[in-house]
Amino acid sequence: MDFNEIPVDRLEPATLIEIGPNYRNVGILPWPEKAFIVGQKLATGTLAAGAIQEITRADQAIALFGRGSIGAEQVAYFKKANRNTPLYVIALPDAGGALKATGTFTFAGSPTSSVVLRFKIGGRQVRMTALSSDAVAALATKLAAAINADLDMVVTATAAAGVVTVTSRHGGEVGNEIDLRVDTKAQPLPAGLTCTVVAMAGGSGNPDVQPALDLLVSTWATKLTHPWSDATNLAKTAEWLRVRYLATSKLDCHGFVFMGGTYGQLTTFGNLTNSPFLTMAGLKKSPTPSWAMAASAMGIASFHLTDDPARQLKSLVLPGVEAPAEVDQFLDEENDLLLRNGISTFDCLSDGAVTISRMITTYKKTTLDIADRAWLDIMVPVTMSRIRYDWSVYINLMYPRSKLVDDDSDASFATRQDNDQDAGTAVVTPKRMAGSWAARCKLYGEKVWIENVQRTLRESVFQRSTDDRNRLESRQQVVIVGNLMVFAGRLEFQV
Fold first, then answer.
1. Distance from C-alpha of 293 to C-alpha of 306, rounded to nearest angstrom
2. What pLDDT is attached to residue 409?
3. Which residues are registered as beta bridge partners of 394?
4. Which of 108, 135, 148, 270 could form a disulfide with 342 if both were Cys (CB 3.0 to 4.6 A apart)?
5. What is the pTM assigned to this prediction?
6. What span, in angstroms and rounded, lies between the C-alpha atoms of 33 and 270?
7. 40 Ramachandran zone, left/alpha/beta (phi>0; psi -120 to 50)
């Protein structure tokens, strides 16, 4: 028998009993889910550059990123969707020389009756009382004051001659995505009064995400989101995710970056990357900012894919995310085409809620430019990450100090006890490792992560390297379980 603590040669009489766990029949090992938000901070934010901070309560982010910051809003939406997954944050300030986006509300005419008017800015409601005696200058002053009264608003406002100018608190293209609207659905404008909205524009110069990614070069992180959807930051994010998934890294992480836009803009957006480890999506004219949507989606994915990595996320609600007006919602045919271009899709409910339709990656083709759907659904990389993690940890638990011998070697018959065919930590052979793989696959099959388990075992190969006698090599085949995405049937009636 093999021992770790008891010497083989001992003369002094003693009763020595070594205690240790036997992992032979251990169940699925816990997956250490750990989500990261890289957020944009204001000058008032206290989180220093290069610092990583755990967040347990949403209001912690107000001080860390600054009140009215994008980072604080990202955290708030994640926490609405997921209060259980460990969440960590990194803050980046505005880029030097960045330009801030602006937009306007312009009043004309005069209200014929007094009424409480409603507006929405970045999904946040703003209310003001319009009196029948108010001139446009007074209305603009009231609206600007109401906007500035909400200290969590990601914009500030000024008023002059009936025009309210809204300015993003942050510099960069990210400010262009802040939605401005008169909420006529909640309260129509009174007769005689109009309000013209000019969308946010002119923001330029997003921060560079690379310093934040470099902080996590050797840190375990399973999910990550940031608010910058420009091509440069997307390329850096996709490459960072690719390197983490390599066999030499095994720090698997999945990214979420969203953008608001038209069908054409989102199609272009989806084709900026071809990554199995990045999910991109967006809606047209949703009141909710894209960074908030992404944080919410990441929160939902973190929670439910930890419970079951192989189960699709269809029908799950994104808390706090508001659907576009019906006229701005994508048609089914447009959603189908968006999926083909790497954009995840959503369903908009009659009550204004948004649910996940199909969450995918941006992977569309091989490196040979051949169309391919192998990594299409988010469940594929996530399930493979879960299996790789479980299998790697299991090997380390079962065979931390094992000697490697051939199957037909005399030493291959060594066992820990006469009736035990498992060599435990002392000796491992290709066949014994194959047996361990079979045991794990049984668990994966019971969890319905994979199917056709017997086929998996037949097609998996374990062999000792002919070049390095300390190296055991394998090719392990799995068939990830499918999901009911499409039901096609023919319903016939008899005549």
1. 20
2. 79
3. none
4. 270
5. 0.92
6. 26
7. beta
- On the CB side of 186, CA atoms within 13 Å amount to 14
Query: Can you count the helices (H) and strands (E) in the chain?
Result: 11, 22
Measure the CA–CA gap between 471 and 62, rounded to whole angstroms.
Answer: 52
Closest CA to 104 of 152, 161, 186, 153: 161
Instruction: Check residue 423 and give its pLDDT.
Output: 44
Q: Which of 185, 166, 167 is closest to 328 using CA atoms?
A: 185
Rounded Cα gap, residues 356 and 314, in angstroms: 5
Q: Please state the separation of Cα 403 from the chain's center in Å.
A: 41
For 394, which DSSP code? Answer: H
The angle formed by the CA atoms of residues 326, 331 and 333, to the nearest 5 degrees, is 175
How far, in Å, CA of 332 to CA of 336, rounded?
6
Cα(407)–Cα(412) distance, integer angstroms: 6
Tell which wins on pLDDT, 425 or 64: 64
pLDDT digits 0-9 by tens, 289-302: 999 999 999 999 99
Beta bridge partners of 92: 40
Backbone angles phi, psi at 427, to 5 degrees: -135, 140
From CA 68, how far away is CA 65, in angstroms rounded? 8
Domains, the chain, in order of start with CATH, read 35-94+207-318+373-381 (3.40.50), 100-201 (2.60.40), 409-480 (no CATH)
pLDDT (mean) for 245-271: 96
Give the pLDDT score at 420: 45
> Is the pLDDT assigned to residue 44 strictly greater than 50?
yes
